Amino acid sequence: MVNAQKWLDEEYPIQRRSEITELDISKGKVKRWPNHERTLKGDLKLEGFTNLQNLNCSGHELTSLDLGECRFLTELDCQNNKLNILNINGCHYLDRVDCSSNNLRDLDPSNCTKLKEINCGSNNYLEEVNISSCSELTKIGFGFTYNNEKNKLVQVSQVILAQDDDIRNILIVGMTGNGKSTLANVLTDTNQFRAEGFSTSITEIFKKSEIFEWQGKKYCVIDNIGFGDTSDLSKEDLLYRIGQGIYSARQGINQILFVFKGRFSDKQIIAFNLFKDFVSESGITKFTTIIRTKFENFKEPQECIRDWQNMLTQNRELNEIINSCKSIIHVNNPPIPIIEEDDDEEMKEELEQEIIANEVDRKDSRKIVLDYLAGNCQEIYKLKNWDCVYKRVSSYMEQIGEEEKKLLESNDDEEKNRLKSQIEDKKEKIAKEVNAELTAEISFLPKLIARVEVKDINMPWKKGNK
Fold first, then answer.
1. Whole-model pTM?
2. Which carries the bigger pLDDT value, residue 450 or residue 161?
């Protein structure tokens, strides 16, 4: 990373700036040499750019951007930075601005009387924007709507209050092998979720439980086939998974449980960061709880606190994700051993004692998590385009279900190939619908897709990488 102001002053001497009408310094365009991208960081003030009309500085880590002297600026793209401050007061001719996916708390376009298009979504602390002076404004990006009484743009709520008789959908995500499906079985007090490692059919990417009750509230647990194993995922696979997740939870999500067992491999850290970025931008962070599995001392509060503190010091990535989520809960769900007929009496007695102890741990873990959910599932989260996605993908999902049943029943190779082709075609259509509906709302989605498509991911913290 480089200091943004220092870089600009070196690359664009003050005496040349008045000649520049277009400036593209977006991520990927700032390079020391070919194929060596640089990230601009910190405050940036554009002085002397008196004839600048178009500016693109998206994708960096700018914390403030001062365009007060750019009076002829008509188009601004500064999305996907870390802006706390954006000064566009002097931009009287500004026609279009995209400042989405930043950390803005305030935005003042009162002097931008020519403004026709604005996108300020995914600024979680920006609640409203006064547009009383922007009489020509005709297009508003995602995340905000026009409030006629206030004559302001106001943030669209993604959260509604759950009613007592609403079904509370609990989505379980996590790395394969971390106890995700086991947790789903423990919470539902069933064995309906397949153990991780078994093959999963097309219609079971998201597996729903039967509705069950706890403390007078109805719950449904939704498990998926293992978030984070991205090496074999294509763009279509990822978008299809998102579409099926929405299809599986039409009413919305009450809580996400991110399951892990403590230590992370390099690939798990990458997947964890993908999840962190996604939930951060989509606004679902406060609905995400971390479940630390396979922790034998889960009934000892002091041991849980000590483990939590140790995880915070493990590495920066883990520290960030733990701090970004709502809470962390420790559980232990040991497997229930099977007593074989040919086991001797001593072995059978040992296994019986182990079964009793393990069942107690699983019941205690279940109570801990469900008691927590009873006090923390009072709201329902939906992406703003959730219902639109559901409507677009539901018919395809139903058709896939019917075609997969026929596939399982068929003994004709030609018919099987035809059905497989039809299923893949509908999966592609679902992926396109999800992409069309959600990319505008979650601008991080294209980056997530791009990173999923990279099979050999460079891990800069590993020794030997530059």
1. 0.58
2. 161
